[in-house]
UniProtKB/TrEMBL annotation:
The keyword Thylakoid does not apply. It comes from Circinella minor. InterPro entries: DDRGK_dom-contain. The lineage of its organism: Eukaryota, Fungi, Fungi incertae sedis, Mucoromycota, Mucoromycotina. This is DDRGK domain-containing protein 1. Residues 83-95 have a biased composition (Basic residues).
Length: 254
C-alpha cells in the first residue's frame, strides 16, 4: 500500500509537467501562426500589386516561413516572433518614390476635383445671372409694352375727345351760322365796304364770330363769290356792281 502511494506521488508531478509542456507548445504554434499572417498581410498592403514588388513579397513570405520553421526546429529565440528580412536600400527608395508618386497623384486628383467643383459653381452662377438678365429684360420689355399701350390708349382717348369737341364745335358753328348768317349778310350788303370791327358792331356779334360767319358765306353762298378781301377789310361785290363799273368806265372813256 505504501509503495502504491509512493508511485502516485512520483507520477502525478510528471504528468502535470507533460501536460504543461504540451499546452505551451500549442500556445506557441498559435502565436507564431498569427504573427506570421499579420506580417505577410502588412507587406502585401505596403507593396501593392506591382509585379516586382510581388516577387519581393514572395521572398519575404518564404523567408518568414523558413524563420518559423527554424524556430520550430531549433527552439531558439522568442516563441512569438517572426523575423522578416530587412528591405534593401534601393528597394526602400523605390517604395518611398512610389509612395511620393501616390501622394502626388492623390494631390493632383484632389486639385482636379476642386477645379471641377469651382467650374461647376462658376457655371451655375453664370446660368443664374443669365436667367436673371433674361427675366429682367422680359420685365423691362413688358413694362415698355404696357407704357406704350397705355400711351396709345390715352392718345386714342384724347383723339376721340378732341374729335367730339371739334364735332360739337362744328355743330355749334353750323347752328349759329344757319341762325345768324342772314343778319351778317344783310349787314354786309348794307355797308358794302367795312372792316371786321365795323361788321361786328353793326351785327351785334364778336369780331371773331362775325368774321367766321362771313367766311362761311363767301365759301357757300353764290351771292358772295365776287366779294373782295383786303386784310381785315371786306367789300361786297355783285354782278350788278361789275356791270355798273363796266358801264361807268365805258362812259368815262368816251
Amino acid at each position: 500500500m505504501v509503495n502504491n502511494i509512493d508511485v502516485l506521488v512520483i507520477m502525478i508531478p510528471i504528468a502535470l509537467c507533460i501536460l504543461g509542456i504540451l499546452l505551451l507548445l500549442e500556445i506557441r504554434e498559435s502565436l507564431q501562426s498569427d504573427s506570421g499572417a499579420g506580417n505577410i498581410t502588412s507587406l502585401q498592403q505596403a507593396l501593392g500589386d506591382n509585379d516586382s514588388d510581388s516577387e519581393l513579397l514572395e521572398n519575404y513570405v518564404e523567408e518568414a516561413a523558413r524563420t518559423v520553421e527554424e524556430d520550430d526546429n531549433n527552439g531558439e529565440g522568442s516563441s512569438t516572433a517572426v523575423h522578416v528580412k530587412k528591405i534593401g536600400k534601393k528597394k526602400g527608395e523605390k517604395l518611398k518614390r512610389k509612395e511620393q508618386m501616390r501622394q502626388y497623384h492623390e494631390y493632383m486628383n484632389h486639385q482636379r476635383d476642386l477645379r471641377r467643383a469651382q467650374d461647376e459653381v462658376l457655371e451655375e452662377e453664370f446660368r443664374r445671372k443669365k436667367d436673371e438678365e433674361a427675366i429682367r429684360r422680359a420685365d423691362e420689355s413688358e413694362r415698355r409694352r404696357k407704357v406704350k399701350e397705355k400711351k396709345a390708349k390715352q392718345e386714342e382717348k384724347e383723339r376721340v375727345k378732341r374729335e367730339k369737341a371739334e364735332e360739337k364745335e362744328a355743330k355749334k358753328k353750323r347752328s349759329r351760322f344757319d341762325k345768324y348768317s342772314g343778319r351778317i349778310a344783310d349787314t354786309v350788303k348794307r355797308l358794302k365796304l367795312c372792316t371786321m370791327e365795323t361788321l361786328a358792331k353793326n351785327s351785334g356779334f364778336s369780331q371773331e364770330e362775325a368774321t367766321n360767319i362771313l367766311k362761311e358765306l363767301c365759301a357757300t353762298s353764290p351771292e358772295f363769290r365776287l366779294s373782295l378781301w383786303s386784310g381785315s377789310t371786306f367789300m361786297f361785290v355783285t354782278e350788278d356792281d361789275y356791270a355798273n363799273l363796266s358801264a361807268y368806265l365805258e362812259n368815262n372813256g368816251k
